[in-house]
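Homework help board

Subject: predicted structure for assignment chain

Our instructor gave us this sequence and asked us to write out the predicted structure in token form, then describe one feature. I got the tokens but I'm not sure how to describe them. Can anyone check?
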Amino acid sequence: MNSEFSLIYPDLSTRNAAYAGKNIADISDDTCEQLGLGYLLTLKNSSLSEYFTTDAEVMRYRTEGFYDLLDNPDLKDALMSVIPILNDIVELRQLDADMSGTTESYLYSITEIELYISCVEKLNEGLAPIREKLKSRSFKAMAERVKTLCESDYYKELNRKLTELTDRVREIKSITVGVNLDSQLRPSSAGVLSINSEQFKSGELLEKILRMSFKNDEYTCIAALVPFGRGQSENTKTALSYAFYSAINDVFKASVKSWKMIVQSYVLDNTDFLIKIMPEIEFMVKGSEMLRQLKERGYPLTVPEIDVSGAVTFRAEGLYNPSVAEQIAEEIVKNDVVFDEEARIYVLTGPNRGGKSVITCAAGIAQAMMQLGMPVPADKMIASPADGIYIHFPIGAEDTIDKGRLGEECVRLASVFDKVSGTSLVLLDESFSSTGAYEASYIAAEVILGFCKVGCRVIFATHLHELAARIPEINERSKEIGGYPVDSLVARIENGKRSFRIDREKPDGKSYAGDIADKYGLSYNRIMQRIEASSKEK
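My token output:
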């Protein structure tokens, strides 16, 4: 039976293409962490960056599976029930590799078959009640495959033979050893005469009294072998134990060695597909749990329309940031974000804590989730795959000692241009905040002009209102070099309060410094109030 089954690739060609480095998106684990997606979806057996794809068919295949998991909670339970057994098989194989050719190795093969049968039966029991409810190609194929395994004649025969062999092996309680002596009563040769289903009796008087029998038989010891008595060195004991062990090993080879071949020729072919997809199971289950939590809190999820026309597209209606939604109690504000031929690049301005960073990350998370094959956090979305998501967010000062803060920012951003293409998504948040407004606006304008030439989708969230004011100038320069246009997004203030709404409009030119000063009690009026209140208390 073909062991190339996958929950995340619809066929061998798409899987092999991914393994060869084709149709994958450059979205790093660090990018996921900074966007907030790493907080939502944490994996133990693999990295999230391994699952990003640019193949629309792969995305659709996974989306089917995620909805099966959402619609059938018992499916998750069935999958998770076999993970500990599969982990035991993996551990057993590692032990087996260290003891190849030994009796333990042969016995491990029996244990592996036992685990295999237990795994298949448990999975079949879990899938049987929901088999007809499954709709995805991936889980329908898995359920059918497991059912076929359980109903196969070979599987039934394997189970029967395993029972017989297990009974025989586990019945072994002792061996009878024969030793030939020479004329001087010295051992000249020794060997195993028989394998017994009973343990021998010590032959001591007390034991005979306890069992009310003074009769000696073939299972009564008349003299203990000296190395297992007191006063013998460990080397002597080890030598005799090894001799017995080697003899037993020879005996077992005849009856157990053939089972090793069964493991290799049959069991490995039929369990490897489960072991290989263990990381895939974790990815699908953890991803579905993240989606389930959003649904249970009343947040919408939508299957994105994947634009494969070759156009660079991103149109999201009712977009929200799921990382923020998970952490707040009140209803989250949703926004629309549209990249089109009139705006591939946005300069996003507005007050501090007005939602600029939230919506910037939301766009990145939605694109990333689409390329994981998940439904996305929006009312509606159509987007083309990105070959990579590149971010430039504020970081710590660990790399600023030699370069300085501005130098570090410039080095990081320059490296983005080594990778970015027209299909990329680039997200910048408060870049160049470490220098003065004039220098920052100048550098930022040059950077934006570079992105205009590349033609990638960009959101530049910034406090630099001077930069937003330069958009007409940047667009003139972009037109001269055949670049794409820039437009403005504004985080709105309504009735003096942050609305967290993001609108596509020209900036009003406000720096919102007064708003910030008032919020933290540092406006003139707020300062006067504090002084007056303090005077009254005195």
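Reply (TA_rk): Your tokens look well-formed. For the description, you could write something like this. The radius of gyration is 35 Å. That's the kind of observation they're looking for.
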